[in-house]
Amino acid sequence: MVVLADSIFQGTVLGPTLWNVFFHDVASAASIEGGTEAMFADDLNVWNKFPLDASKDEVQEKMERTRAETHRWGKRNRATFDASKEHIVTIHPVEGQGESFKLLGCTIDVKLVMQEAVDQIVAVAKPKVKALLRTRGIYDHRQMFIQYKTHIWGFTEYQNGTIMHASDAVLEKLERLQSHYVKELHITEESAFLYFNFAPPCLRRDVGILGFLHKRTLGEAHAAIEALLPFDTPHAPWHNKPLNTRMFECTRRPNLFNRSIFGMAHVYNRLPQEIVDITCVSKFQTVLTTFAKLLCQQNRLNWKRCLHSSGELLLALRAVNFQDAFFPFPN
After folding, report:
1. How far apart are CA 281 and CA 218, in angstroms?
2. CA atoms within 13 A on the CB side of 123
3. Higher confidence at residue 191 or residue 3?
């Protein structure tokens, strides 16, 4: 029997620091087969890239060796890994294999369809929406939208970064959930957006991701994000702070690439110089939202998706002067 004479209780100030010191060198074992480790507290992830012609057996064997070496580290350091939380998966749109797994609370399937994640969100949010609609006789429109923003948006949007690359057909379930709520209040989506700042999910998702990219431009993002999206050489007539995504250009799966954060970087690179120069992320997102409101006010068909792709953005810029977005929108 081993007696632990020197220990601290969980939740103390020194706990996280001492754990990080103890756990840090697991990276050496995890990367011995060429993998790249990512650690958050006691959570360890190891990923590796393989050529397209690599066999499934080759991928599985190499990752099994990585797991075995990590377990050997645990045995030497008296640390045990929870077998129920261990997964070896191959992530690929066609050749993906393995069970869906959770990463920081987000469900990810190995073929990146994200159907399971969206279904889980809708399954929890739908009863909440029904419960809110039962109170429509008590609250006015403004209060009903505030209730939705408070109780629904926080839950349905916290996974936006992981579901953004899902197809429109998969994400349509989230669109229908909110549009049903608006319809039940006997108001149009345009009026809800213009007068109550109640934007549709697709627009809010695009504004949120662009705001995340703007944080990277301002130097407020994690160092890993800065390494993932370095600055590119400016190309006229775009702004002078473009993000470089050429190293990740995908010719085999262009649709998946365009729906990813790299595709949104293309949208960011097409924004006017004035908005990229904004030094506050919240104001940056406010200007983007106001731009969409101007399109909505003019009954432009693409107002919901004006920031969804570089092509949609260029069409919107031809229709509306972006400078107008710097002025408050009249209610």
Report:
1. 9
2. 6
3. 191
Please say whether the beta carbons of 159 and 116 come within 8 A: no
Return the H-helix or E-strand segment holding 304: none
Q: What are the structure tokens assigned to 251, written together?
A: 């010719």
**5 inside domain:** no
Residues constituting the chain:
331
The reply to whether 297 falls in a domain is: yes
Among 174, 198, 222, the domain-final residue is 198
9 pLDDT exceeds 90?
no
**In this structure, is residue 27 part of a structural domain?**
yes
> With the CA atoms of 269, 206, 107 and 81 taken in that order, what torsion angle do they form, in degrees rounded to the nearest 10?
40
Residues 83, 49 share a domain: yes
DSSP, collapsed to helix, strand or coil, labels residue 175 as helix
Number of domains in the chain: 3
| Cα–Cα distance measured from residue 286 to residue 328, given in angstroms and rounded to the nearest whole number | 10
Closest residue by Cα to residue 284 from 245, 326, 329: 326
Q: Which two tokens stand for residue 169?
A: 């057909």
**From CA 79, how far away is CA 44, in angstroms rounded?**
13
Tens digits of per-residue pLDDT, 169-209? 999 999 999 999 999 999 999 999 999 999 999 999 999 99
What is residue 327's predicted lDDT score, i.e. its pLDDT? 56
Question: Which amino acid, residue 141?
Answer: H
d(CA 177, CA 175): 5
**Is residue 44 classed as helix, strand or coil in its secondary structure?**
strand
> Between the CA atoms of 301, 303, 307 and 311, what dihedral angle is there, to the nearest 10 degrees?
20
